[in-house]
Amino acid sequence: MRNLLLLLGAAAALNYAAAADPREAGVLDQCQAPFAKLRSVPVRAVTIRDGFWSARRKVNVERSIPTMLELLEEHGVLDNFRRLTGRKAAPRRGPLYTDSDIYKWIEAAAFVLQSEDRPDLRVKVDRAIEEILAAQEPSGYLNTYYVDERKALRFTEVTRSHETYNLGHLLQGAIALYRANGERRLLDAGIKFVNYLMDNFGRTKRPLSSDHPEIELALVELYRTTRDRRYLDFAAYFLEGDGERLKLAPRDLVYMFSGKPFTARTKLEGHAVRAMYACSGATDYFLETGDAAYWKTLERLWEDLTRRKMYITGGVGSRAVGEAFGEPYELPNQLAYTESCAAIGNFMWNWRMLAATADARFADVLERALYNGVNSGMSLDGTLYCYRNPLELVGNPDDKIRNPWYSTTCCPPNLQRTLASLPGYFYSTSAEGVYVHLYDNNELDWRLESGTPLRLRQTTRYPWDGNVTIEVQPASPAEFTLFVRIPEWSARTKVAVNGAPVAAVKPGTYLPLRRQWKAGDTISLSFDVAPRLTAANPRVRDSFARVAVERGPLVYAMEEIDQKGAGSLFDLRLELAGGRPRFRETYVPEKLGGIVELRHPGVEVVPPSATRPLYSPLQPAARPHGAPRELVLIPYYAFANREPTAMMVWIPYGP
Amino acid sequence: MRNLLLLLGAAAALNYAAAADPREAGVLDQCQAPFAKLRSVPVRAVTIRDGFWSARRKVNVERSIPTMLELLEEHGVLDNFRRLTGRKAAPRRGPLYTDSDIYKWIEAAAFVLQSEDRPDLRVKVDRAIEEILAAQEPSGYLNTYYVDERKALRFTEVTRSHETYNLGHLLQGAIALYRANGERRLLDAGIKFVNYLMDNFGRTKRPLSSDHPEIELALVELYRTTRDRRYLDFAAYFLEGDGERLKLAPRDLVYMFSGKPFTARTKLEGHAVRAMYACSGATDYFLETGDAAYWKTLERLWEDLTRRKMYITGGVGSRAVGEAFGEPYELPNQLAYTESCAAIGNFMWNWRMLAATADARFADVLERALYNGVNSGMSLDGTLYCYRNPLELVGNPDDKIRNPWYSTTCCPPNLQRTLASLPGYFYSTSAEGVYVHLYDNNELDWRLESGTPLRLRQTTRYPWDGNVTIEVQPASPAEFTLFVRIPEWSARTKVAVNGAPVAAVKPGTYLPLRRQWKAGDTISLSFDVAPRLTAANPRVRDSFARVAVERGPLVYAMEEIDQKGAGSLFDLRLELAGGRPRFRETYVPEKLGGIVELRHPGVEVVPPSATRPLYSPLQPAARPHGAPRELVLIPYYAFANREPTAMMVWIPYGP
Q1: pLDDT per residue over B509-561, tens digit each?
Q2: Torsion of CA B143, B148, B154, B160, to 10 degrees
């Protein structure tokens, strides 16, 4: 603690105006954001116990984060810094955004350190930081690509340089680390680089654009961390875009989702990760400024996302070309691009929209993305990652959908930082009380905004079953509202407080439970996790006349490997003879880390489609003809964790 | 005739060993091909009368071909030659394959000249040839791109140069012209260039590859024209591929469909036009050599095409990226790339497969491509062209699917040469008699292979109705077989000879009518053109649970503009309550140049899909709910000939 106070003292000397202990800031620090209805709680305030997320978080800390540092070293990402300080003589390696990979890794490690003291990890982070800091130029410029013969190109390759993108990730990593243990050397380095940029670029100076949005949200968080308003204004500069002066082409403005006023956007288009990060940054900006034009645009884009352009997994980005959004309803399953980073971007954006509104629809999308399109991105053993998260695979043995490394390795550390920061997403506070967003065994140890210390303890087998008990323990009896999220998918939810049922529970809302809470009060929730059959809008061509199976927050999928006795996965149909589903639900502890497996009657259509002609006369009256088969479904997130096999989310059904 | 004989005399002096009058050669000259079962008849031997194709051919000659020459001039395609001879001082314009555009235009004009003497057109062709010939270098090299500062790059840009592609089109144009009127200056220029290549490149010389297959089929036709076997061997060199010596990357071998042995191919992949041209060239090579390894590969690729990778329109190429084939069953409708040139390539390939086998399945595909995916490529007025021929359009007013010009303007002259040469595809001869492939009002004036002159006259309203009368007029009574094609789509066909019914008529075959034919004999055919409902293999994701409507050889489509009183096209369903279609068929002479319009009961589903959520609980038992609507369908080829409007081929149906 003494060390920390010393560090804080030094921070004050550097004009860090943020009064609070940095360790009390959450994933976002909206404590002073005038237009935030919700405020994050510190990551360390929530302890996730054994349950659904504990296994994922365990491999993240024990396998994924350590092996990723080894891989980053192996591929020269840190050597790219060392060569600038003469510590390593080697050519620069990798694409121009590799710096961001180590910054994101540091952020992931920092979130771990926010939750627990891991000296070994702290040492690794310290070493990485030293290599980075040593490479910073006296001006503040810090980038391993635009050096040597490329130095003259700095800030000229305005549609590809990733200079501000790398800096944004540096800042995010530095802020997470500062919030972990007050360590601010990396933060100071980031501030120095930002100050250099502000000295040279801006509306009345040289023009600059974020070719890959990221700097915007990082600058708002830097403003929150330092209370230096110039950083917020600089974020606004990027959000407004200086593309005219930079002569950006219309296609660049689409692809980059940057360079023109964010408030002039009317639809999601272009590179999906860029768009999601831009929306996140714009929402952060709104939280601080309340600019109505921003809100109008954000609402419009969110409608475009959720009504026309989002996969059922919460994944986004339909096209490999340009890693881009498609046209409305263009959501191909097999060809889905659905980059892990884009699903994370969707998750990040909805977290900010939720903070602005406390509206449960944003939490529903956040949960959808988290449990499915994000969660699928890391293998169960924590060593393989999806770049793409398609909703259908043909099962080509050569398909490698999960890999330990990508030359563009943005997704793995992005998944790591998301899992490491996950405790920070379970709760928020508001002036009225506490919001409960997510469910799993965990404890909150924090305080109401009034200052009253508060503990909450969740006990549950969620998402495998729908029962959740929340024990409430304020330090002293206090009147406040406990806002309990009722997921949109839970058609019939039972809620009781100390055994007394609560009426009028509506799906897709936060149920406000206001009373004088005292230690030992208990809330019982019973969500309806009965398997559901979900249809897509008929304009979604690839999912037409098909059905997806969901259970609680989980989207399910069929893998061919599970369909014993059947031929091709693509000849199976879900049999809905009575019009009602007839699922068998079994918790299988030894399968895929423990899952509820679903089984449902089906039919294997004959003759097999592979032997049938491409075009043939329609047999409209004919029901699928074939052998009865029990279809086996697993949660989508666990797909491709065994041998290569065909997979599908959207299943044909009959009759 | 005297002129022609003089020309032929000169040709003989240049070692043209082909004995026959070049004007007696058809689209292909398989007269001496040992492995051809069928032989083409000259284009000029068939006169197409007023009917389905006459209007298309009329705009082709009167609007399309003349305006295209103007556009080629406007865009500098001929100036690219003139600048090399000092006749024009201007920078070179257009991509590196513009030479092929004028060669293809010459080929189109030459086919017109094979049918009729058009002095104005002949003058234009002559002028173009002069510009081209003047630009040929003494060595024989002729190319407007690899000149000046790019001269050093000749034959080095092995994955993009199009040098052999341009030459292939030069040869095809030159041969068509030679067959029109014995004009052989362009042919001599082509031969000179080919000889230059053979002097410098080959298995024991410098390596060369066809980065865009085309030279292969042109060289075989050059062999057929000159009987110089070195050209056939040189074609084999390209078909075998010299990619190892050229160090072509695996992705180049896929994309180019060239550079490795054709006989090592196991599937269609890469650039669709390249693949179709390669298959055409390989079939030509088989026709001359009977190489069994080629046939095995051709059969395998044809199965891959027709079982997994061909649109119902005969279009091919699913992906915009790389203008490429997709995975098996990857046949998206809205995103279909289906370049006009690829459908033409499919048509060309099947013509060659048909020549090798006399198997009607190849004629079925040829007819499918011709009437639909090729025919759609040119607007009804002959001035606008499709590059892509998608099977669905959302009806964005900014969509310009038909355009007068493309910077890569390969498709327009390709369509022109196809329509101009069309008479040459109606009949073939064999040792046993005559094959009738296509139906329309027309007259054949040719001879049996025995030498007996033979006239045939077809009278029909095909494809609008299914009745065809063929009058047979041998110069003297002769026993031979008239092979009449029974399309695969005609479930019940009636055939009579001189009024006497013929039994055992099978769809998808050539019906052999062998007898002593005498002048005045008449064959009556009655094909079943009742509208048909066609289903796609269920693995075709985009067409799952949808139906296509076909009538005779025509695929039909719905355009939103025709659906009076309805909202979005995408809310319409075909109503098949009784399981049987109930079409109303009306010939509407004033609509779209005269079409049989189809009407069928349907439903407009409410609420409109645009207002519905992206995902919602399945209502499995519910029938589509909405207002009855009569759906209006037009032939696919006529789509987008009015204002921009939504269009679909694959229609949802209920119940």
Answers
A1: 999 999 999 999 999 999 999 999 999 999 999 999 999 999 999 999 999 99
A2: -70
pLDDT digits (tens, 9 = 90+) for B603-632: 999 899 999 999 999 986 555 678 999 999
Which residues 596-655 of B are in CB contact (within 8 Å) with A? 605, 609-610, 612-621, 652-653
Residues B7 and B88 in one domain: yes
- Picking from B307, B330, B618, the nearest residue to A613 by CB comes out as B307
Of B536, B613, B621, the CB nearest to A307: B613
- Note the pLDDT tens digit of each residue in A436-474: 999 999 999 999 999 999 999 999 999 999 999 999 999
- Residue A307 with chain B: CB contacts under 8 Å: 613-614
**Of B210, B227, B171, B213, nearest in space to B194 by CA:** B171
Q: Model-level pTM?
A: 0.93
The reply to whether A327 and A459 lie within a common domain is no
Q: What is the pLDDT of residues B32-76, one digit of tens each?
A: 999 999 999 999 999 999 999 999 999 999 999 999 999 999 999
Q: Mutation test of the interface with chain A: which of B618, B651, B653, choosing the one with the most A Cβ atoms within 10 A?
A: B618
Distances A561 to A394, A572, A650 between C-alpha atoms, Å: 12, 13, 17
- In this structure, the answer to whether residues B308 and B437 fall within a common structural domain is no
Interface test mutation site (partner B, options A396, A541, A605, max chain B beta carbons within 10 A): A541
Single residue among A404, A425, A446 that ends a domain in this structure: A425
List the 543-602 stretch of A: residues with Cβ below 8 A of B: 544-548, 570-571, 576, 579
Nearest-CA distance B348 → chain A (Å): 21
- What is the C-alpha to C-alpha distance for residues B88 and B109, in angstroms, rounded to an integer? 25
pLDDT tens for each residue of A115-133: 999 999 999 999 999 999 9
Residue where one domain finishes, among candidates B461, B496, B526: B526
Residues from chain A contacting residue B335 (CB–CB below 8 Å): 330
Q: Does A163 touch chain B (CB under 8 A)?
A: no
Q: What is the mean pLDDT of residues A505-513?
A: 98
pLDDT for position A620: 64
Mean pLDDT of chain B: 95
Complex-level ipTM beyond the 0.90 threshold: yes
Clarify whether residues A508 and A541 are in a common domain: no
| B198 shares its domain with B260 | yes
- pLDDT of residue A3 exceeding 50, the answer is no
**Burial zone of B3 (CB within 10 Å; 0-12 exposed, 13-18 middle, 19+ buried):** exposed
Contact yes or no for B421/B347 (Cβ under 8 A): no
Tell me, what CATH number does B504's domain have? 2.60.40
Is the same domain home to B435 and B305? Answer: no
Distance from CA of A345 to the nearest CA of B (A): 20
User: Does residue B7 carry a pLDDT above 50?
Assistant: no
From CA B20, how far away is CA B451, in angstroms rounded? 14
Q: Is B333 on the interface with A (CB under 8 A)?
A: yes
What secondary structure letter does DSSP report for A404?
A: S
Print the SS3 string covering B608-655: CHHHCCCEEECCCCCCCCEEEEEEEEEEHHHCCCCCCCCEECCEEEEC
The domain in which residue B614 lies consists of 532-654
B339 and B488 inside one domain: no
Check whether residue A86 and residue A235 sit in a common domain. yes
B405 has a chain A CB within 8 A of its CB: no
Give how many domains chain B has, as a whole number: 3
- B620 vs A544, A579, A652: nearest CB: A579
pLDDT at residue B399 in the model: 82
A533, A610, A652: residue with CB nearest B620:
A533
Q: Which residues of A touch B544 (CB under 8 A)?
A: 544-546, 652
Q: What is the CATH number of the domain that holds B96?
A: 1.50.10
Q: What are phi and psi of B198, to 5 degrees?
A: -65, -30
Residue pairs between chains A and B whose CB atoms are closer than 8 Å: 122
What type of residue is A464? Answer: W
Distance, in Å, from the CA atom of A342 to the CA atom of A360, rounded to the nearest integer, reads: 21
Distance from CA of B629 to the nearest CA of A (A): 18
